[in-house]
Structure formats: structure tokens, C-alpha cells
Amino acid sequence: MQAKVTHPMSRVPPAADSILVVEDDDDLRVVMVLALELAGLSASGVANGHRALDYLDRGALPSAIFLDLKMPLADGAKLRWALLDDPRWAKIPVIVCSGDCDAIRDRALPGIGSWLLKPFTPSTLIHALHRLAS
């Protein structure tokens, strides 16, 4: 059994203990989940908005959601509106991750806690959670 090795400065505040990553790029999703786990968090990843809604419907209530905008089936904007329409999920903080500079500049989605431009580093991911918690 291997122990997790984390840098103390990379730890996220204890209130943020469960994170959902909604990202269609398999490799990026795995890296994001791993970075969050190395920071001491419980993290899960799904490939699109439909799978995110299925995950949430099963009773999961994450502390925050990292959300890609451009995905097949149900993109990030559709998922954000679905979250806002359901009182169980409306208050979950959302951090949008996108490679689309125009989408980030537009910022038309309500209630977004932070915006990350792809590509980003694992430490940028963790810092975004720190900003949410402060």
C-alpha cells in the first residue's frame, strides 16, 4: 500500500472535500482527478453533461465542479443551466475550464466561481479551489 505524497501548500481547505470533474478529454480528466486526489481530495470524473447529471441523480453532492464547456451530448453551458434549475445543485460552486478564449471572455453563464483557460497546471487547478474557499 502506497501512501499519498502531497506538498502541504497544495492542500485545499477541508470544506472542499469532494470534487466532480466534467471533461470529455480522457487524458485531461484523469490528470485533473489525480491532481485533486494528490491534494487530499476525493475526486470523480465524468465525460459529459449527461453523465454528470446521472452522477448527481445518484445522490452525489460535490463541494465543487470543474466544468468543460465544449463536450459532446450535453455541453458545459447546458449542464450549468440544469444545475441552476435544480435546487439540490444550484449552489454547487462551478469552475469553468475551457480552451475557448471567447467563451471565457464572454462569461455569460451565471454563478461561475472561476474560469481557467486551458492548458493549465495542476497547481492552477488547486489555486482555483483556494479562491473559491476564500
Can you walk through the features of this model?
The protein is of the alpha/beta class. It has a single domain (17-133), classed as Response regulator (Rossmann fold). 37% of the residues lie in helices and 19% in strands. The protein contains five helices and five strands. It has helices at 26-38, 49-57, 76-85, 101-106, 122-133; strands at residues 18-22, 42-46, 64-68, 94-98, 112-117. A five-stranded parallel beta sheet has the order 2-1-3-4-5.
Structure, briefly:
Helices cover 37% and strands 19% of the residues. It is α/β, with parallel strands linked by helices and 134 residues long. The protein has a single domain (17-133), classed as Response regulator (Rossmann fold), CATH 3.40.50.
Task: Give a count of the beta strands, DSSP E runs of length 2 or more.
Answer: 5
What CATH architecture would you give?
Answer: 3-Layer(aba) Sandwich
- Radius of gyration equals 14 Å
Q: Please tell me what the overall shape is.
A: globular
What is the chain-wise order of helices and strands? EHEHEHEHEH
List the domain count as a whole number. Answer: 1
**Order of strands across the main sheet:** 2-1-3-4-5
Structural class: alpha/beta
On the 0 to 100 scale, the average pLDDT is 83
Biggest sheet features: 5 strands, parallel
Instruction: Give the class-level CATH name.
Output: Alpha Beta
Give the CATH topology: Rossmann fold
Separation, N- and C-terminal Cα atoms: 34 Å
Q: Per DSSP, what share of the residues sits in E-state strands of 2 or more residues?
A: 15-25%
Looking at the chains present, what oligomeric state does this protein adopt? single chain
Number of discrete helical segments:
5
Query: What's the CATH superfamily, by name?
Result: Response regulator
